[in-house]
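Researcher: I'm comparing several assemblies side by side, and this is the next one on my list. It has 996 residues spread over two chains. Same procedure as the others: predict the full complex and return the structure.
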Amino acid sequence: MQSNDFQGPVSVAPVKGKNKAKVAVLGAGISGLSTAYELERAGYDVVIIEASFRAGGRNMTVRHGDKIDEMGHTRYCQFDQDENLYFNCGPARIPGHHKRLLHYCRALNVPLQIKANSNQLAYIQDEKINGGKPIRQVDYRADANGFLSEMMSKSIDKGAFEQQLSEEDTENFLSYLKAFGSLNEKGKYTGSDRAGSQRDRMLFPPTPKAPMPLHDVFKSDVWRGVSFASQIYDWVEPLMEVKGGMDGIVKGFLRNISSPVELNAQVRKIHNLSDGVEIAYEQAGKLNTIKVDYCFNNIPAYFMAGIENNLSPDYLNALNKFKRGHLFKIGFQMRERFWEKEGIYGGITYTSQDNAQLWYPSHDIHAAKGVMLGAYCWDEKQCARFEAMTPEQRFKYAAQCGENIHPGYSGYIENAVSIPWARMNNQMGCGIHMEKEDWEHCLPILQKPDGRHFMIGDQISQHSGWQEGALAASQQALSQFNQLQASITSSHGAAYVS
Amino acid sequence: MQSNDFQGPVSVAPVKGKNKAKVAVLGAGISGLSTAYELERAGYDVVIIEASFRAGGRNMTVRHGDKIDEMGHTRYCQFDQDENLYFNCGPARIPGHHKRLLHYCRALNVPLQIKANSNQLAYIQDEKINGGKPIRQVDYRADANGFLSEMMSKSIDKGAFEQQLSEEDTENFLSYLKAFGSLNEKGKYTGSDRAGSQRDRMLFPPTPKAPMPLHDVFKSDVWRGVSFASQIYDWVEPLMEVKGGMDGIVKGFLRNISSPVELNAQVRKIHNLSDGVEIAYEQAGKLNTIKVDYCFNNIPAYFMAGIENNLSPDYLNALNKFKRGHLFKIGFQMRERFWEKEGIYGGITYTSQDNAQLWYPSHDIHAAKGVMLGAYCWDEKQCARFEAMTPEQRFKYAAQCGENIHPGYSGYIENAVSIPWARMNNQMGCGIHMEKEDWEHCLPILQKPDGRHFMIGDQISQHSGWQEGALAASQQALSQFNQLQASITSSHGAAYVS
């Protein structure tokens, strides 16, 4: 991939001699787990300290009986006990160019499958347009491309771009436009069989529907957004998912790590020493203090203000700039896969309502039931409205929104989970917000160690909110580690010859 | 689906009384199998007569040891014995709006999965452009959309469409164009991070590549085609496939049919009688003559000239207009899934070379080996070149073509199959070609019975070459059957009260 020359993980300089250097990894999210995995393979003595009752961080898949640890609203997932009824609360998609993540899926034997993400037969719905009724994306795309091409064709006839385009270029461009917009012989867009046919196209010649009013086509923000959603580089088709749930990656790491993972262990203190790092954490009401040679810190940066530390002022200043992002999801267990009867097999419906997106599962096709996503927003105001509600109020609200897309929607809902990441204990956010200039200043500082302390996590990548960012951060910290280690003469000196 | 109001298969009027009416179905392709299935469920006494050694027609999946019955070039598939190493020689994709086929998949418990069809990380390659080197589709799309939007924005500023667009419309349209083409603040296209970044985008801010020369962008027929391939209604994302191979549908029908399927049985004669149909077929050197009450005929229309019959002159004249289509495929077993290392997980590469398309399997991700499609053409001239070769010559030629897309391609090939449908015994073609006016004249004739003889098969649908067309033809013949049956007073009279 031209944009990612990753050829494999950083080869961590191995421990040599008898004394094993000790490393603490704070936080058992994807960045912490991969860091621990690589260090353990190189022979280090690793301990992972995790504040939550579970490993994985935001890589979290819930099934029957799982605890949903929202501040003040602890709930348990009521989905039926069925391996196909699960909900990915955090990451849910993997593009083919996320090479680090794909490397680990391969190395850890995590099975993948194609996930339908873009679905042209799913809907877009904007309350301001078409009387608020949903329309199929394929209809919108045909009309938008058709009108665009027709208008462009008319314009190019006028020689508007004669300086840029030779006669041959113009001819090629016109031919491109005709194909792109499905124009008729006269260069007009009059509807297209790319959006199907009014009569059964298997038995009768195609009779395209009439186009929407031109006025409507380009009016809606939602519709506009849909037209390029699958053009975003991280969402280019095809996307993948882990068979059985995204936490297959967490399980893959845990299967291949023998280092202890201390759960329910909240870090209270991080002190850089001249020859190591002292860490205190609270577990089962007891304060434990350990001394390690190195520390990799995956704790959300905005929590660091509450942890006693002696990090340098520049480092601390940078950490303090991190603002937590908001992200909200609802998963509904549906008694019937009603969407498949509408020809929708996976993918996303977009709406101008607060629930923002509906996702239909694309695995376990034609099964009796399915878990679909009933809300997915990251706009702060939309999130705030959901965050202020109880889980039960959220379900009711999202169900009402769904009715405007699929009449009868509420009647299919058997039970639900809601995940407001900004209210989830030990996370309290998802993704990072920062002013661009702060970002340019802070990131380079935090991508270097402070003493023997390394920050990791998607938070210090350019791609927060994605597992690939978490792995990139881990990888870059490990290459910094190699450099630092090579330059240190420590009490373990003999152990570090590289 | 607005374009297909299929709500379930035709309910065939059941046999009543003691005497079971006898029906012959000629040809065990998808149309024949579904016809037999529905008639059997309604209580009819059905026999299926199939010329080939196997059922399924062009729904054909080959695996280790399977016979490839090409005229003059009988071969056996040498793929490893592995349930994931198979090749769909005929249909390979199912869109969400092919409701008839999806109905049968559900009814027959045929497991489906999402198939990656469009892949923006796969290539397009045209020998005339970019020095013949392949480029990623995502690069092409970003540039094509970018240039198109920039040019359109410039044009609309000039008020070229003032009559059509209000001020508000124009503003909306400009905003749409900016999003569509990923234009900068000045409305210019200068490359886009939608095609990735020159530096690792996980650790450094995105730095888009420079666009291609404008001259190249719209020049290539191949590239132009790619830009709208996934807009064709039958190819809209997402597409599906049968887990384990498309012939899972054939197996599904056969599991649910108890009527005899006579294989290696070539029809020699079809005679309409006043109260039934007489059919003679040759099997194991012996001529068998049977008399049935009704006949459903799935034999390729262009074979009918060689079968003794007493069909009406109009009917025969219509049958004689059918010209067989050409379609050619190669499947290569690859010792390694090299494409996945390039970030390609399924989908299609398009090339101006004779092999036309490469398809990468999207199931069994990260396995050791995979079967990919190494050629797929339906252009008559391209097909003719492959058809004139021996299988071994075809493999060599397609391997050479592949080298221009994936250097080292030939070295991965372990063994291969080739399927020239126009040379496959008992098929000798795929899809139908006919002048439009002939089509309009002939199709309505053949969509009605001649006596008690009904034509079926994708050939008499508007959608030849698709299983959905085959099922639509079967369904419409069965509704004709209901009508005819209701009007007949036959020797079995009592059995037909509807």
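Model: For your comparison table: The CA atoms of residues 146 and 409 of chain B lie 33 Å apart.
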